[in-house]
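Example 3.2
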Amino acid sequence: MSLKEHGLHLFRSAVGTVLPGPMLKAALVLETGGHPRLVVHGRSFELRRNLYLVGVGKAVLGMAAAAESILGDHLVRGIVSVPQGIQATLQHKGMREMLLKPQSRIQVMEGAKHNLPDRESLKAASAIQELAEGLTAEDLLLVLISGGGSALLPAPAPPVTLEEKETVTKLLASKGATIQELNTIRKALSVLKGGGLARAAFPAQVLSLILSDIVGDPVDLIASGPTVASPPRAQDCFQILAKYNLSNVVPESVQTVLSSPAAERGPPRDSARVHNVIIGSNRLALEEAKRQAENLGYLTLVLSDAVCGEVSSVACLYSLFIQLVCLRAAGNDPLKGKVGEALLNLAAELEIPSLNLVDAVNVLQGSQAERPVCLLAGGETTVQLEGTGKGGRNQELALRVALELHRAKSSGHGSSLEKYEAVFLSGGTDGQDGPTEAAGAFSSPELVGEAEQEGFDVEAFLSSNDSYTFFSRFQNGRHLLMTGLTGTNVMDIHVVLIRARGG
């Protein structure tokens, strides 16, 4: 098998282990002996025709289908807010296990086209809020949450309008704001985020099952934390706006709401009646990919499940790592050379959690030089938009890694690369990278040179943030990672595969 085929296998294996069905069935147990009970991670909840369900997120339809198959007639009613067109897409792909049955008690509401809040998702948020506010102390609300939930649960805090909230979100995203910063602002401008949904459901018990799509799995930020009491401070919000020079650009209504944090909009609620449980994450996906890579004979290292930072810096990090792996056969400590020093400095600058370069290098040095190497990582990078092209963070990262490797080869510093073949893969586990039908892309040290021979100016494409156009035109799009919507979402997976030529 080629390195590309191996990379595709690892990516699909990683995604497969965090699909909604298997995760829900592992986390949610219905005990029917005597009084029926719902058991989650050792905590039990008595059922007596008091169970309701709501959900928001890209993976929630599959989660809801799995939940209903477990709960059966114990579920009274439910509403889920899911991406526009997802039912038709799953139906077309034959993924019926992620679709609700015709007589389902769960109402499906689609919206948030292109992952942006719209009138349809606003209707869904209103319906969910109405259901929650109608519950009593005898009721249990099961909340299903996954990535993409922020856009699917828009309930702007008056006097902010949906359009004004969307404007602020777009401005921040275009400036390269992190998902944490985006969600901080979203929570401050929302009625249901930052614990607002749990507040609306009080005095009912609330049980949230969460599929994490954020570095570090912070429950208060995933889908902007609708069941986690975490009202942002006004000071933090204004600091974020100031950081991106947006303080004087946002609408006056936004300034008004941000000056009055969410905590001041309603009475405190009993947090003891709210239980938040993470049932799936990027780390689980990486662990499965590691098992598969080792079965294929690779020396495999999971670098981090918290890779973040601007794509150009992260691309440089991966380029240096690939060069370092190719240098290990020389017998010297690669961290003491120019590549190693540059890698250490950049890693310190990026401050990626759980990334231990010294340990990684020690493992590499202790291995046979001819053994193929697999480096795995996950997380979510950011792109600062400077052009009007079409692409996503995974495709841009893959293309930038190729450019960095090409520059290293051209300068003579990457001569060791000639002895190895290498592939880099970056893909979104939800199957969609930005506003494109690709999940991500593959690249290699040879890609830029081959593109230049065919008349493509890679740097021009990157300066316009036009990575998708490049990949779709170059070699008939064979470097694109095309999976279609997967039904799950645990951020991105990065795969580096390296082996000696002829190996």
